[in-house]
Amino acid sequence: MFFLKMAFKNLTRHKKRTIITALIIAFAILIYVITEGLMIGMTEMSFDNIINLESGHLQVADQNYWEDRKELQLKNLITPAAEIENKISQTDGFEALTRRLNFAVNLNNGIDELPVTGVGINLETDSRVFELDQHLVEGRMPEAGSTEIIMGAKLAELMDFQLGDYAIMLIRTEEKTFNTIDGEIVGLFNTPHPSLNESNVFLPLSTVQERLNVEDKISHYVVRLNDQDLASNAAEELSSRLSAPYQAYSWRDAARSLVTMLEMQDIETQIILAIILTLAAVGIVNTVILSALERMEELGMMKALGMHEREIVYTFMGEAAGIGLIGGVMGVIMGIIGLAIFNINGIDMATMTGGGDMTYGFPLSGTIYAGWELESFIFVFVYGVVVSVLASVLPALWAARKDPVKAIYHR
Amino acid sequence: MSLIKLTGLEKIYQQGKIEVPALRGIDMEIESGEFTTIFGPSGSGKTTLLNMIGCLDKSTAGEIVFDGHSINDLNSKELAEVRRYNLGFVFQSYNLIPVLTAFENVEFAIRLIDKHSKKERRDKVMSLLEEVGLGDMADRRPNELSGGQKQRVAIARALIKEPKLVLADEPTANLDSETSKEVLELMKEMNEELNTTFIFSTHDPQVMDYARRLIEIKDGKISKDQRRD
After folding, report:
1. Residue B7 domain-assigned?
2. According to the lineage, what is the superkingdom (chain B) (predicted)?
3. Once rounded to an integer, what is the mean pLDDT over residues A375-393?
4. Residues with Cβ < 8 Å from B219, sequence gap 6 or more?
5. Percent of chain A with pLDDT over 90
6. Three-class SS of residue B34?
7. How many domains does chain B have?
8. Would you say residue B6 lies in a domain?
9. Dist. CA A255–CA A2, nearest whole Å
10. Given an 8 Å threshold on Cβ–Cβ distance, is A306 in contact with B87?
11. Rounded to the nearest 10 degrees, what angle do helices B147-159 and B102-113 cross at?
């Protein structure tokens, strides 16, 4: 305790140096907290966008369809049945259920053709699961049984469509014959999910089923739960109640590649933190060496009084811990202020991507609001102190092993 | 039994490829309670001798017996233990810890021994500070004390653990003659009161006047060993 007290008193010898070294640690913590906060914000927004606009919380499909779902083939579709829907509705946290049919479309404006994803939606139930209707920037949702369609404003701009125009949609039926839908564009949406804006066309489910000649078949059910954290367990539990080939998948299964990407991003953030704190550690090493050189006669006296090397090392480690604590507190305070700014004002995705439309695979656009987790603060604070202490060990050992005579006479 | 017994003590420093002998065979015995001065010209080897006696440096040849135990074969940790419990040091430049108060500087030495309760420690430190005339300056930091006061704190720090031996390397070199006299009086008083053995190195004639035994070192050898009553 005495050594710790002395170590902390030693921090007052060169207050400016202590503060500057602590500031380096504080900045490292600030950068980490902001990066982590933005990552949390991006993750939360990405997941929200996927859940609210693409996958819901759960999807129920034929497992053979699920494996090849990105190919949009009309194989392994399912026929809705009250028995399945009853089982789905008994899921823990169940809120709503809707049916969808995804299919491949070649969108034609008379000059150009673009392959996009067509989605047949049940207009009565879709808004209970998805938020698509909340992102309409022009027009309205299609009417059930009509050939009205909605698409992303971005896609419309790309294909030179306007509200009220007719889009020719070239499709292939289950029997591989070609068919078309002349869809009247009645609504344009602009969601925070960029790929939805650029490559999806939505129209009434019954119209799609009729034109694709699939009777009342759908590609999958989509389920909304009252808590997204229930999804993984709910999918497992529901799958156990469903008979083959039906299987339930959580939104995490649907966004597997995104989850993996975010995990990689998390590792990247940790590496950034490690690099920044390593640089801060150089500051600590420098401070300990300078302190030892300045106090060489004192160190000699301490050794003459019988202080062990270990005790001298503890004293320097205590000082480094003090610097780490001061830097940690400053970093956390600065981090809270920085996060509050990014949490209230947000940061435009375009700023992060150099003004372009690039999203780096994240299903989000517009303004990102930083999120925060108490664990991040605790982790980075402890990490900062630990790195400070560890950085001091070698220079402290160097100082402690000085020959007492050379130290006393500063030779 | 003598407190210190040196037999054929030699110390050779290696400066590059050149060997520089600092001590060339010292034979000496110091009894408990002695007040001894080692004097001689600069470079004669008196500081080296003091460092050997103080377990701070190792000899090249010869033997050092401290309180009946040979310290020749002790490792650095064991030597630190000997210093911790048996030796007190007073340095020319005081070597006080600037961030600690006079009280804490003295307490520092006794803390290393760790055999007293907090109250005992406090009473002991305060009583010694009173004895060296700094009772009312216990809360001052070294930069708030004069040279003489700093050296008094250093003496109190050397004596607080009641060591068998106090080694003082030119303790008055940075003090004016009046303050030197006060400091020497104090050490003499402590020597008589506590029966602590004191060994000084100096070339200050005033210090020599206080010594009861004078040992002169020339070229690494004892050239004179004189006892006074």
Report:
1. no
2. Bacteria
3. 90
4. B24, B44, B45
5. 47
6. coil
7. 1
8. no
9. 55
10. yes
11. 20
Is there a domain that residue B17 lies in?
A: no
- Structure token digits, residue A282: 């150089």
Alpha-carbon gap, residue A409 to A117, rounded angstroms: 82
B108: CATH: 3.40.50.300
Distance CA A320, CA A388 (A): 6
pLDDT score, position A360: 57
Whole-model pTM? Answer: 0.75
Whether A255 has a pLDDT exceeding 90, the answer reads: no
Check CB contact of B51 with chain A, cutoff 8 Å: yes
Instruction: Note down the domain range covering B123.
Output: 31-60+71-225
Number of C-alpha atoms within 13 angstroms, CB side, residue A347?
20
* Cross-strand pairs, B55: none
H or E stretch covering A27: helix A15-50
User: Chain centroid to CA B29: how far?
Assistant: 16
pLDDT digits (tens, 9 = 90+) for B24-37: 999 999 999 999 99
Quick one: how many helices (H) and strands (E) in chain B?
7, 10
pLDDT of residue A244: 83
* Contact predicate A94/A223, CB 8 Å: yes
A408 and B56 within 8 Å at the Cβ level: the answer is yes
Segment B98-122 shows an average pLDDT of 89
- Classify A263 as helix, strand or coil: helix
**Residues A12 and A326: beta-carbon distance below 8 Å:** no
User: Of the ranges A130-139, A393-402, B49-58, B166-175, which one carries the lowest mean pLDDT score?
Assistant: B166-175
Digit-coded pLDDT (tens) for A337-357? 999 998 888 887 766 655 555
User: What is the distance between the alpha carbons of residues A336 and B162, in angstroms, rounded to a whole number?
Assistant: 54
Give all strands (DSSP E) within B49-93, no chain letters. Answer: 61-66, 69-70, 87-90
Q: Is the pLDDT of residue A143 over 90?
A: yes
Chain A residues 110-139 within an 8 A CB cutoff of chain B: none
User: What is residue A142's DSSP assignment?
Assistant: P
The per-residue pLDDT of chain A, averaged, comes to: 88
Torsion of CA A337, A340, A344, A348, to 10 degrees: 80
CA distance linking residue A186 with residue A168, whole number of Å: 14
What is the least distance, in Å, from the CA of A384 to any CA of chain B? 26
Whether residue B56 and residue A12 make contact (CB cut-off 8 A), yes or no, is no
Q: Quote the CA–CA distance of A260 and A255 in Å, as a whole number.
A: 9
Dump strand ranges (E) for A153-219: 166-172, 178-189, 200-204
Distance from CA of A11 to the nearest CA of B (A): 9
Nearest to A12 among B56, B89, B99 (CB): B99
Q: In chain A, how long is the greatest CA-to-CA distance?
A: 98
A348 touches chain B (CB under 8 A): no
Alpha carbon distance A116, A103 (integer Å): 9
Rounded mean pLDDT, B190-200: 89
Q: Under a CB-based contact definition with an 8 Å cutoff, are residues A183 and A148 in contact?
A: yes
Question: Do the strands B165-169 and B61-66 form a parallel or antiparallel pair, or are they unpaired?
Answer: unpaired
Q: What ipTM was reported for this prediction?
A: 0.88
User: Cβ neighbours of residue A382 under 8 Å, at least 6 residues apart?
Assistant: none
Q: Do the domain assignments include residue B135?
A: yes
